[in-house]
Specification:
The complex is a heterodimer of chains A (112) and B (115).
Chain A lengths: L4 E3 L2 E5 L4 E6 L5 E9 L6 E6 L5 E4 L2 E6 L4 E6 L8 E9 L6 E2 L3 E6 L1
Parallel strand pairs in A: 2-11
Antiparallel strand pairs in A: 1-3, 3-8, 4-5, 4-9, 6-7, 7-8, 9-10, 9-11
Chain B lengths: L3 E4 L2 E4 L5 E7 L5 E7 L6 E7 L2 E4 L7 E4 L5 E6 L8 E8 L10 E2 L3 E5 L1
Parallel strand pairs in B: 2-11
Antiparallel strand pairs in B: 1-3, 3-8, 4-5, 4-9, 5-6, 7-8, 9-10, 9-11
The chains are: A mainly beta (112), B mainly beta (115).
Chain lengths: 112, 115
């Protein structure tokens, strides 16, 4: 059983604050790591797909890093805005499986 | 423009009464997935289709079945829902499963309540 853990479970920040959260996954047999954003009442949408150790990806104010040797990825949000409020899910694929194994997510609430 | 559509968005059914959830896609993707997410848990893959090839996860209960009559549509049938099947059901698509680099496109989910 693959274990994907996300921390913290939930986070409240003020508008303008920068924040980050963690996804931990097995360090052996890594294939890919996905990040998704899921706003309430909407569809989860892909933010990043990361495949190489040391990868850094950026989309606007959101960026992510990947360390496959130690089994973690960080997601950073710079200058949080209310529209960033969502659950952020990471999902791991090992080399022996073609399916995503999700974490339980980090629920972010950005307050005015 | 909606790309992965799920109907209904909310469904209430009685214990033991069969229910069908629907998913359609306009992306022409080969692969369609069904996930179950119970409260405060991670989404869990139930099964997926690669074209017409059905792939069941080992721990998916027999009570859960799926049909994919064509590329665009996929159905989740729960033959005799139990109270423990109350959950959000997510449908997703991707271009392929051969590499983990294919992002998945999700529908908004169907929230199923079994009473």
């Amino acid at each position: 059983i693959l274990n994907v853990e996300q921390s913290p479970q939930s986070l409240h920040v003020q508008e303008g604050d920068s924040t980050n959260f963690t996804c931990s996954f097995p360090s052996s047999n890594f294939y890919a790591l996905h990040w998704y954003r899921w706003e309430t009442a909407k569809s989860p949408e892909a933010l990043f797909v990361m495949t190489l150790n040391g990868d850094e990806k950026k989309k606007g104010r959101i960026s992510a890093t990947l360390n496959t040797k130690e089994g973690y990825s960080y997601l950073y949000i710079k200058g949080s805005q209310p529209e960033d409020s969502a659950t952020y899910l990471c999902a791991f694929i090992s080399g022996t499986a073609s399916k995503l194994t999700f974490g339980t997510g980090t629920r972010l609430q950005v307050m005015l | 423009d909606a790309m992965v559509i799920q109907n209904p968005r909310y469904q209430v059914t009685q214990f033991g009464k069969p229910v069908t959830l629907s998913c359609s896609q306009t992306l022409n993707h080969n692969v369609m997935y069904w996930y179950q997410q119970k409260s405060s848990q991670a989404p869990k893959l139930l099964f997926h289709y690669y074209d017409k090839d059905f792939n069941n996860e080992a721990d998916t209960p027999d009570n859960f079945q799926s049909r994919r009559p064509n590329t665009s549509f996929c159905f989740l049938d729960i033959r005799s829902p139990g109270l423990g099947d109350t959950a959000m059901y997510l449908c997703a698509t991707s271009r392929g499963t051969g590499t983990g680099s294919y992002e998945q496109y999700f529908g908004p989910g169907t929230r199923l309540t079994v009473t």
